[in-house]
Structures are given as C-alpha cells and as structure tokens.
Write a structure and sequence with these properties.
The complex is a heterodimer of chains A (112) and B (115). With 112 residues, chain A is mostly beta strands. Helix content of chain A is 0%, strand content 55%. Chain A contains no helices and eleven strands. In chain A, strands 2, 4, 5, 9, 10 and 11 form a six-stranded mixed beta sheet that branches. In chain A, 37% of the residues are buried. In chain B, a hairpin with a 2-residue loop joins strand 5 (42-51) and strand 6 (54-57). In chain B, strands 2, 4, 5, 6, 9, 10 and 11 form a seven-stranded mixed beta sheet that branches. Chain B is 0% helix and 50% strand. The mean pLDDT of chain B is 93. Chain B has 115 residues and is an all-beta fold. Chain B has strands at residues 4-7, 10-13, 19-25, 31-38, 42-51, 54-57, 65-66, 76-78, 87-94, 105-106, 110-114. The chains are: A mainly beta (112), B mainly beta (115).
Chain lengths: 112, 115
C-alpha cells in the first residue's frame, strides 16, 4: 500500500512568517509530487508541482523535494491570513493507473 | 471558463435508492476520476477513466459504478447507497494521467448523506 503521510496540525504561524509544511511518502518509485490547497468546504486547488530533486519557487511558495529521504515540503513565505487552509500533499505513481495518492492534509492557521 | 462541473452539490437520500452524480468537464481532458473525502482518511480514488469507454477501479470501488460514453462526462452511480457512502465526493480531470501531467482539476464537490 503506497502511503503519503502528513502531520494533521493545526500548524499555527503569525502573519508574515514562513510556514513549513512537510510530507513523506513510502514508494521510492514515485515520480511526481503535488501540493493542493483546500479551503473548508471547497475543492482542492493545485498550487505547486515538482518532479526533480531540489527547490522550485513560484511567488511566495517554494516546493522542496528530496527523493533520497522520500520527503517533500512546501514553504510559504510572508504568510497571510488568506493562506489559512488545509494543504494536501499528493504523490504520483506512473504505474497502476498513473494516479495520485493523497495525504490527509495539514491544516494551516495564519494568525494576525 | 475552464471547469469541472458536478451536480448535485448536496444530496440527502435514503438507503437503497439509486442515485447518479454527474460530472462534466469542458477542457477536452482525457483522464477523469472520482474521489471521496472522509475525515482522517483524505482523498481516496473510487474509479478512473483514461479515455472514452475505458474505466478502471481505484482504491475504494465497492458500491460504485461509472461509465464514460463521452469524453466530457463521467457520472458516478450508486446502485444501492448505504450510510457508509455518506461522504464528500469530488470529480477530477486532467489532460493526461495525473501523475504524468501537472496534477488534476477538481469539481466543486458533492456532499452526499445516506440515511
């Protein structure tokens, strides 16, 4: 069973701080990694994807991938109250239906 | 506007009464899938479809059926709903298989309650 693990939180950070969200995965054959943001009662929204080891930056968001450690993270700089949401990590497996396996999500709270 | 549209958004039904949740996408995506989301369990894939007339089971297919007669539509059918199918359901689509392309786009969700 392929697994994707996230700390459920809540993770509380003050406004303007850096929020660090972490995800580990069990299958070394995983090839693609995604971060989705989900506001309460809404659908998941893709915010970042990364395929290669290292960092990928997009605005205030940075995704970090370390395949050797089977670890992917999302950094949110200058956190805003509007960033308060649940962040879902998803891992892509190209075998067996080429599908995504999701973690249970980390709830982020950005406090004024 | 590019979107995935699910209907209905909310549904309360009784055990055993057949229901269909519709899903339609206007992005000409080949890959479509259905997920259910439950507290503490995250998003779990029910069924997926790589293309028209091609469907396959996901992780939790029991009690569900799907069909893909047209590229844009991928309805989810519950022939005899039971209370353990009470959940939040999402339809998703992507240009190709989501692990190979930039993820998937999700519909607004359908909150189903089976009493």
């Amino acid at each position: 069973q392929k697994e994707v693990e996230q700390n459920s939180g809540p993770l509380s950070v003050p406004e303007g701080a850096i929020a660090s969200l972490n995800c580990t995965y069990s299958d070394r054959g995983s090839q693609s990694f995604f971060w989705y943001r989900q506001y309460s009662g809404k659908s998941p929204e893709l915010i970042m994807f990364i395929y290669s080891n290292g960092d990928k930056e997009d605005g205030r968001f940075t995704a970090q991938l370390n395949k050797a450690s089977q670890y992917v993270s999302l950094l949110i700089r200058d956190s805003q109250p509007s960033d308060s949401a649940t962040y879902l990590c998803a891992v892509g497996f190209t075998g067996g239906g080429n599908k995504l396996t999701f973690g249970t999500g980390t709830q982020l709270k950005v406090e004024l | 506007e590019a979107q995935v549209t699910q209907n209905p958004r909310y549904l309360i039904t009784v055990t055993g009464k057949k229901l269909t949740v519709t899903c339609s996408q206007n992005m000409n995506h080949e890959y479509m899938s259905w997920y259910r989301q439950d507290p503490g369990l995250g998003l779990r894939q029910i069924y997926y479809s790589m293309n028209v007339e091609v469907t396959d089971k996901g992780d939790v297919p029991e009690g569900y059926k799907v069909s893909r007669k047209e590229k844009r539509n991928f309805p989810l059918i519950l022939e005899s709903p039971s209370p353990n199918q009470t959940s939040l359901y999402f339809c998703a689509s992507s240009l190709g298989a989501p692990a190979s392309v930039a993820g998937a786009f999700f519909g607004q969700g359908t909150r189903l309650t089976v009493v």
